[in-house]
Amino acid sequence: MDSSEETYNPWSIVNLVFHHLADEGLHPMLGEAGDPGAHAAGLLTALGIVPSARGTEKVAGRVSDELAALREAFEAAHPERASRGESG
Q1: Do 40 and 63 sit in the same domain of this protein?
Q2: What is the per-residue pLDDT for 62?
Q3: Per its UniProt entry, which superkingdom is the organism in (predicted)?
């Protein structure tokens, strides 16, 4: 996959649409009419976005950065536990 391609998890689209329909007072049912993931992937493809189970690379990067910052803050606040490899 080209690193310049935008990617997104099709199931995030399913979740977004499901909640939007429910907020509008409708009663969507997952699985009643088949797997919606394939249709969500088709929508992403039509919008020029590559469907990917890994999801959005930007989000994954932000999550990794946030976890690293939390780890660093924890280790700074609890140096005795960090040096023993304890996490909680």
Answers
A1: no
A2: 76
A3: Bacteria
- Residue 15: how many other CB atoms lie within 10 Å: 14
How many angstroms separate the CA atoms of 17 and 13, rounded? 6
Return the SS3 of 53.
coil
Q: Residue 30: which domain range? A: 1-52
Which SS3 state, helix, strand or coil, does residue 58 take?
helix
> Count of alpha carbons within 13 Å of 3, Cβ hemisphere only?
0
What is the domain count for the chain? 2
**Residue 50 main-chain phi, psi, to 5 deg:** -80, 120
pLDDT at 9: 87
What is this structure's pTM? 0.54
